[in-house]
């Protein structure tokens, strides 16, 4: 190496003892350091030193450094290689160690060991005189001839390698530029040689001897290569084998390995795959593709990128459950019991699910519609899906589709892409390992669209019973029969489900729960479940019904029961701490619960040493969950004219919504604020127009012709940040404005919903059940709904109906009369408008 020509190594060198691998001058090697002396050397010499000299160390091969610092150092090999530590990497895992990258400079002989601890240091004599190389390769006599032969052999070897690999091309160039004398060392470290052979090369201090030792190794490598190429020739499309290049060295220490063992492993692997392919019981078409791919795989060198691709593909193919399935164990009576046990209420949904299952039992292949449960979050859609799988004795797998906007998520990537993989359907099948699971397609309403195609369109093929027996994933590229899979979809709203998809599904509405239903669900399911999850028993924690009601009304505002479950979880956690603390103070009696229920008023919280069971009363509740999050604010807000309560439907369930209006001097402008949809804005304009045209009738105009003369009106929809789209706020806006213009208060216990027309008719709206439940939750007493929605009240539980006073309105006049105490009298009897819609 000409660049090293001037280097004179120090006469004293710290010694690094290695036992695997031999560093030769001119090559680079990675050495792992973990023994005490070697670690010391790295720490105090390499990591602390600042000069170039301090990075030069002596590497002594074939000596194992003793594990303990105190142990005697074994006798050292007398010749070593001085090396330059190029890189030091430290790691603490799995145990503290360093990895050194060392480039060999020249040989040295140990003349005297100066000290052994903390790391050995020796007086050394430099053996290779680096400057002699720079004189050029003009050595003559036997040495000249030897070096010429060696050079030619090296050229021949490199010529047999694939020049398109950059490192091979670089090596070819280096052969000409390196001094000939360095070649034995450089090549011996590159070709396949054992440690013993390398050691012989290292020990050959005399150049002539070194050439003699290294030349047979080189010739052996060339012969090996020739043999390999001959066998390759027999396979015509594969003579361009890229040689496996062993990892672990940086040029020039790379080792070209022509491993026969790797070949064998390779063979084993493919044989194993072949066995698996034959055992996978796949259909004819898939088997043909697999066998073809296997054939290609056998011919491929392992280093080719395509090898891994094809291998992965075949692995995937054999793991798919082509003909593995579970047997259905459906008993409708048992299914009914199971569904009832798992879920309280939701009668309509359970009835439909049972019908569906019954038909399935009678007719084994069902090409019916896909069930789609639509409802607010936390009402048990997913959990019903899981129960269905359980009643059928099938595997259950949930595929979350929220936010999926690439069709290859469903249908996979073509295998031409790097990192391609199958879609979620095929992946799901691989996960469950059978071909007839229950797949729950969660959140189908939240599928997106993007430049990468429309995932909803890809789902069509999956869900269509006419097509899905031959569903073709792009990655597999062979059809897979999905007809045995039972698909169930869930969504929060049917409005955003792509129409074509909706067309293939039967929508089952799962409305929110009433407060009473929530209490029942909490006591039958959520509390026992949470107790179990937290390792508690009912003998340790009791939550009375009143407390549950408090949690529901003061700490949650939701249609489902998810935050209720979370709050119960929070209580369990708090109690678990107390129970765990009290554990040491002796076991509490298991039969205390009866006496204690009477004591619960005094048992103010969990502060003092726990007496089992811990009963959560309202004080304890406040301690654990903090002050109430939601207060009923209805009556407070209705103390001024110009406020009315509407009922809105959102994908999260029903909500009450305050509509506020105020007036100020101006020129008849209308300002709207709040999260509004376009339709809502139109409703507001409609309401204003109707009021203006009827101002005289209702005495709103204060004598003038137009109530808006000289005034601006500001309408605001404050509740929440949900877009309140939909026309159903029409009646509320009219009521609110009528209150503002007349200066009268709207009754504080009335909520209303309904669309209006310009002529003052009230049209029906959707989501009545959710809206009525929201009104009930808010403790309102009277609900005004359009007359034509009267039939929807059937869905509402009887006790809720009994609590509320329903007013069915077909005109705005009726709405206003019901909304104000004592009615909202018109000045003159105007002719009744009758709906013809
Ligand atoms: P969704 O899928 O509708 O968002 P989940 O199925 O995840 O809701 O339900 C949330 C939690 O509420 C689950 O722990 C579930 O067991 C429980 N749950 C919901 N409805 C009921 C019910 N009617 N009976 C018993 N548990 C219920």
TrEMBL record:
| Biological processes per GO annotation | protein import into peroxisome matrix; protein processing; protein quality control for misfolded or incompletely synthesized proteins
- Where does it live in the cell? Peroxisome matrix
Q: What is its main location?
A: other
SUPFAM superfamilies linked to this entry: P-loop containing nucleoside triphosphate hydrolases, PUA domain-like, Ribosomal protein S5 domain 2-like
Segments traversing the membrane? none
- The short motif Microbody targeting signal is annotated over 835-837
The record's listing under InterPro entries reads:
AAA+_ATPase, ATPase_AAA_core, Lon_bac/euk-typ, Lon_lid, Lon_proteolytic, Lon_Prtase, Lon_prtase_N, Lon_prtase_N_sf
For this protein, the record's Pfam families field holds: AAA, Lon_C, Lon_lid, LON_substr_bdg
Q: What class of enzyme is it?
A: hydrolase
GO CC annotation terms, alphabetical:
peroxisomal matrix
Entry binding sites for ATP: 375-382
- Name the EC number(s): 3.4.21.-
Going by the UniProt record, its keywords in alphabetical order are: ATP-binding, Hydrolase, Nucleotide-binding, Peroxisome, Protease, Serine protease
- Alphabetical list of SMART domains matching this protein: AAA, LON
Record function comment: ATP-dependent serine protease that mediates the selective degradation of misfolded and unassembled polypeptides in the peroxisomal matrix. Necessary for type 2 peroxisome targeting signal (PTS2)-containing protein processing and facilitates peroxisome matrix protein import.
Which family would the database say this protein is a member of?
A: Belongs to the peptidase S16 family.
HAMAP family xref list = lonp2_euk
The UniProt entry, under NCBIfam families, shows: lon (TIGR00763)
The entry's protein name is Lon protease homolog 2, peroxisomal
Q: Which source organism does the UniProt entry give?
A: Cyprinus carpio carpio
């Amino acid at each position: 190496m000409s660049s090293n020509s001037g280097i004179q190594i120090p006469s004293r060198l710290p010694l690094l003892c290695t036992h695997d691998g031999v560093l030769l001058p001119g090559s680079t090697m990675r050495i792992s350091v973990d023994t005490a002396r070697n670690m010391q050397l790295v720490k105090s010499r390499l990591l602390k030193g600042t000069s170039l000299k301090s990075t030069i160390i002596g590497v002594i091969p074939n000596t194992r450094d003793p594990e303990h610092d105190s142990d005697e150092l074994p006798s050292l090999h007398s010749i070593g290689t001085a090396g330059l530590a190029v890189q030091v990497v430290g790691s603490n895992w799995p145990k503290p160690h360093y990895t050194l990258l060392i480039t060999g400079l020249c040989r040295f002989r140990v003349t005297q060991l100066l000290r052994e601890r903390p790391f050995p240091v020796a007086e050394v004599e430099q053996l290779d005189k680096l400057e002699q190389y720079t004189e050029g390769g003009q050595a003559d006599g036997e040495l000249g001839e030897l070096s010429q032969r060696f050079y030619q052999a090296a050229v021949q070897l490199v010529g047999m390698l694939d020049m398109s690999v950059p490192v091979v091309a670089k090596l070819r160039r280096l052969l000409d530029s390196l001094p000939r004398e360095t070649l034995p060392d450089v090549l011996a470290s590159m070709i396949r040689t054992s440690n013993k052979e390398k050691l012989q090369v290292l020990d050959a201090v005399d150049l002539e001897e070194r050439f003699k030792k290294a030349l047979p190794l080189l010739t052996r490598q060339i012969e090996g290569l020739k043999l390999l190429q001959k066998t390759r020739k027999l396979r015509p499309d594969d003579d361009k084998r890229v040689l496996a290049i062993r990892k672990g060295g940086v040029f020039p220490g790379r080792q070209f390995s022509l491993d026969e063992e790797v070949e064998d492993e390779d063979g084993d692997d493919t044989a194993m795959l072949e066995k698996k392919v034959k055992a996978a019981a796949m259909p004819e078409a898939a088997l043909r593709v697999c066998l073809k791919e296997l054939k290609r795989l056998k011919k491929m060198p392992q280093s080719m990128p395509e090898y891994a691709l094809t291998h992965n593909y075949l692995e995937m193919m054999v793991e798919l459950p082509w003909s593995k399935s579970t047997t259905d164990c459906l008993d409708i009576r048992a299914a009914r019991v199971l569904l009832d046990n798992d879920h309280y209420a939701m009668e309509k949904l359970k009835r439909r699910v049972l019908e569906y299952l019954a038909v399935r039992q009678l007719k084994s292949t069902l090409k019916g519609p896909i069930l789609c449960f639509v409802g607010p979050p936390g009402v048990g859609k997913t959990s019903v899906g899981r129960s269905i799988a359980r009643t059928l004795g099938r595997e259950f797998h949930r595929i979350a589709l929220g936010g999926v906007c690439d069709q290859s998520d469903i249908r996979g990537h073509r295998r031409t892409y790097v990192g391609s993989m199958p879609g979620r359907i095929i992946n799901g099948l691989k996960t469950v390992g059978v071909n007839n699971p229950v797949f729950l397609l969660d959140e189908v309403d939240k599928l997106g669209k993007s430049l990468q195609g429309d995932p909803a369109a890809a789902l069509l093929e999956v869900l269509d019973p006419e097509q899905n027996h031959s569903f073709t994933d792009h990655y597999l590229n062979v059809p897979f029969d999905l007809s045995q899979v039972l698909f169930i979809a869930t969504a929060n709203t049917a409005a955003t489900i792509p129409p074509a998809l909706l067309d293939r599904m039967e929508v089952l509405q799962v409305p929110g729960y009433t407060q009473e239903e929530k209490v029942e669900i909490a006591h039958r399911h959520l509390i026992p479940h949470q107790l179990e999850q937290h390792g508690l028993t009912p003998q340790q924690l009791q939550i009375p019904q009143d407390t549950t009601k408090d949690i529901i009304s003061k700490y949650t505002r939701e249609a489902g029961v998810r935050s209720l479950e979370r709050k119960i979880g929070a209580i369990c956690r708090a109690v678990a701490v107390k129970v765990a603390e009290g554990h040491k103070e002796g076991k509490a009696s298991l039969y205390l619960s009866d006496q204690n229920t009477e004591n619960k008023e005094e048992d103010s919280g969990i502060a003092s040493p726990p007496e089992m069971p811990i009963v959560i009363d309202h004080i304890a509740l406040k301690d654990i969950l903090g002050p109430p999050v939601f207060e009923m604010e209805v009556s407070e807000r209705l103390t001024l004219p110009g406020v009315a309560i509407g009922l809105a439907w959102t994908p999260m369930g029903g909500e009450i919504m305050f509509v506020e209006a105020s007036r100020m001097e101006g020129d008849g402008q209308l300002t709207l604020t709040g999260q509004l949809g376009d339709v809502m804005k139109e409703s507001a304009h409609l309401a204003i127009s109707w009021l203006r045209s009827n101002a005289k009738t209702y005495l709103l105009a204060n004598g003038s012709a137009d109530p808006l003369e000289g005034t601006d009106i500001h309408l605001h929809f404050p509740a929440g940040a949900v877009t309140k789209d939909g026309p159903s706020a029409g009646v509320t806006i009219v009521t609110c404005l009528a209150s503002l213009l007349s200066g009268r208060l709207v009754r504080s216990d009335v909520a209303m919903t309904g669309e209006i027309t310009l002529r003052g008719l009230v049209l029906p709206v959707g989501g009545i059940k959710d809206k009525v439940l929201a009104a009930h939750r808010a403790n309102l007493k009277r609900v005004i709904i359009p007359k034509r929605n009267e039939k929807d009240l059937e869905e509402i539980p009887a006790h809720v109906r009994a609590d509320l006073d329903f007013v069915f309105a077909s005109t705005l006049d009726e709405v206003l009369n019901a909304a104000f105490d004592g009615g909202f009298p018109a000045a003159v009897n105007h002719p009744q408008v009758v709906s013809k819609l």
